[in-house]
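Troubleshooting: if your tokenizer reports a length mismatch, compare against these two reference records.
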Amino acid sequence: MNPICIAHSRRTRRPWLPGLALLLTAFSSVQFAYADSTASFSVLHTFSSSEGSVPYGSLLQGADGRFYGNTAMGGANNLGTVYAVTPAGALTVLHHFTGSDGASPAGPLVAAASGTLYGVTEFGGSNDSGTVFSITPSGQFTLLYTFAAWADGANADGIAPRGGLTLGSDGNFYGATTRGGRNDAGTLFRITPAGVLTTLYSFNAFNSSQPDGAMPTTPLVIGADGRFYGTTSVGGTHYSGSLGPGTLYALALDGTFSALHSFTATTDGSSPSGLAPTGDGSFYGATSSGGSNGSGTLFKATAQGDITTLYSFSAATTTATGLQTNNEGAFPVSGVVAGNDGTLYGGTAFGGTGSGTLFSLAPDNTLTVLHQFSTLSNSANSDGAVVLNAPIRASDGSIYGVTAWGGSNGVGVLYKLTMPALPTISLQLGSTQITSGNSTTLGWNTSGASNCTATGGWSGSRATSGSLTVKPSATTTYTLSCRNISGTTTVSTMLTVNPNDGSTESGTDPGSGTTSKGGGAMPLWLLAWGLLAGIRSRRRAFTRNNV
């Protein structure tokens, strides 16, 4: 079960927040030498209660370069805000929620083609069941929909949407509610830009072993097949008297629902976080807890629901104040974002010194801690704490995100992780053409690479610079891929091997200026010269004998 309570309460906004505040007051400081020094962490903005506290939902970078997001609390009415932050860290509050138009905005904002932003609130509206809204980058706010009242544990369209909205290929928005619907286990819905909502699916009761799961809390993502994919935080076929560990599901545009996978808790994790699509039609994701050590996992899932666990976070030690500490972080509630080569980036709610971490996972499943958040004192520190939402990779190549707590005011920060440039590679052959049976040199130099791998005409791990002699029997391509925490650069070069047929073959080594010649039959011009010389010799002999 997710260490941060996900149960919905009609009386308490964000019921997990008070308990979390108590956990974050004090604990012993532990230092680990796991952070990667090539990633530079900085606080771009420290939130204050007046502009919003507890930022909740991944950031969205707009067409204007600013970052847009929500806070679950704070603002003029302590009901949350919508804000924009420039790359320099200047924050503008675009909207203060009043309750009637929503309260506690949750999940990321999504932009339509027009640039208008769309989002949800978990509470508020006329029925206090949550709302859907739109807002322009200049702050013009429109209430689009209010969810129905919650009566006897159920309603028609769901309550408490938490995962935000996803823009579909049909121009409509799709999302989920955590509770309500026919069985009070949440719903999936479609809503038009004008605010017309259609309930597409109601989940079964969360205290059952139904394969569809219950209480979806994360954003939907679009797969290569055009379907939406998502997760539920509880339920599934591994229910055993308590809340099940969650599921993976798919939803077609026409509302057709498919249950794909039920998590097992101990084997592949529990309470899956959001998904990140890959280029091959599969998805990366995280589970908030469970796995072999109980601290959460990172996984890859196919569109058919096959799960491969990529990494299990190490067991955490509980401090006297109830915090969880370990080396690399624990409980990746945030989910992940995928880089250009399948490198994953994410954060943890706890672990490290107890305040959480930022990490990357390489394609070979090597985890690197990019930042450990520092010790808290009365919920405050210098750099933030408790990562609840996945970071984003912005247009400048840096990673941006928010923490729910910490910072000098104790109510969260917006951070920037400046990443190193991708590696550069020079891969050169001494000659790009050789004759069969001959050899040449293959040399390489890199900059900014932590490791390199060879494929094609050579293979295996390689140093970041070097040379070797190559002697292929046929035309061969040599490929070198080098990576660092920002991703992977790949270059190739081809060596042409000409047959040994006696023809003249010219190398292309500008330094040697030599020409390769093959053996075999005598060239025709040489044979003709010899024949002509013989005829002339016989003619001279004939002349001497007859004079």
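Reference record two:
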Amino acid sequence: MFDAAGGESDWQNAYTSANGLNDLQNWELASNVQVNDPMQDIGTDQNTQNETAVIAFGQNVIAIYRDSNQGVAGNGEADFSNPACVPWWPPTVPQGDGWAVSRDGGVTFTDKGTLPVLSNAVVFVTTDGSSTGYFVTTNMGDTADAKLDRDSTSGTIYFVANSQRPSVYYPNGTNQAGRLYAPVWRSTDKGDSVGAPINATAGSLANQYWDDYIDGPFVVVDNFPGTGQGDVYLSFLWIHNQHDLVLCRSTNGGLAWQVIQQIAVICGGNVFMTTNHEVCLGWQPSVDCSHRQQPYTNTLYIARSNNRGVSFYTTTVTHLPSNGGTNHFTRSISAPSNDLFFGGVPELAVNPANGSFYYAYYDQPASGTNRPNIYLRQLTNAVDWSDPIQVNVEPGGVATDQWQPAITVKPDGTTLFIAWYDRRDDPTNHYLMRMYGAFATLPITSTNAFGTNFAISTATFPPVFSGTHTNAGEYDHVYPPLADGISVFCVPGWFNYGAFSGYMGDYDRPFSDNNY
């Protein structure tokens, strides 16, 4: 209902509550819609879905996510450092990403299963963790970090994800150089189906070693009218003897790709579009790849290109110094000091109407507590970043943990939305979490722009995403039901304080359309 006498003319915008949300938003947040098919999780507590991304157009909503149901322990990578481990190689090709489609504005979803594999690929299998081993012909799958974007003119939807580890295959014979596999899938029927994967780096990168792999892919489409409309850009981190950010471009609807830029020795980054076909790369220094062991430097590099990615100019270096906050979080206030998990990464969003940048991150305040808040900084003049604005509200002034921000801007440029994980509902134990969110009207001119926070999750939940393993430093690992106990202990990084021992694995990406 809406109050016509009070000047309301649209039930979608009617406001009869006191929490800053209209009645439609209150109704929608009263329950959360499950996207994946729950029947696939029956029979084991080791299944999980996370690392989500979503797009919406009209009444169509497409979500993509990491799904451990068809994954393989360790993303396909074997570990020979433990003498108890026999030479192990996954007999099942990982298909670790799924997607689901809604045709009724997100009210109901149909689980579409997993993405197609790269068929008949020749890969190298090590027998001792070195270059000693053998070649096999098999299929190559995908594992995590799935993203998607849509060409608003042709309707083609592009899906990307990490390939299995290692990410190298040998299409030209085992006596020739390997090729890094960075898969892109295309859908031309609004997400009902996707075609076979296309390798965006085929023939473009040289000297791939057998154990190289990709990480953190991003895909964006240039949807601005004029020259460059329909171009598709893919960025990913090439992890070999160093970390390089690689940018690929397709000018024919994703059917063929070229590597057009490579930035060496950096941390994770991604490609994004601003206005008028300007393509940008954002990344962090290599020291921030050690975020599980030390605080972020909170330095952000941005390079711009006005010639469709051929060259970049005016690299903007933005120093956002941390107040000393950590990227590690304890399971609870009573947990051992080494029972930690990783709290995610900062996120950048662009205003599609005017090209302004918005950077959301978490850090402890300058004084008073070491429990982090969510902060926003904005770049509206292409020169100077604003001072930090605190996004979350601390009820009663009680400091609790907030982390893992996700940020998006409404396409008409009028509204900014940020969501994050929050422990305000468990101020005593600092254990249970809940997702919260906030809107801000653009442009932001006040430090109180996010004064209204609202709960998104319908209930609090513990920091456990799968499994029942609770040893300190070995944080609730995500591994598939097909992995036996021996295989799990032979997966690199899961145990003995390895790289994944403090890994929660939740990199979520929001999306806006002009309705929401």
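Descriptive notes for reference record two:
- The longest strand covers residues 49-57.
- Residues 328 and 342 are 5 Å apart (CA to CA).
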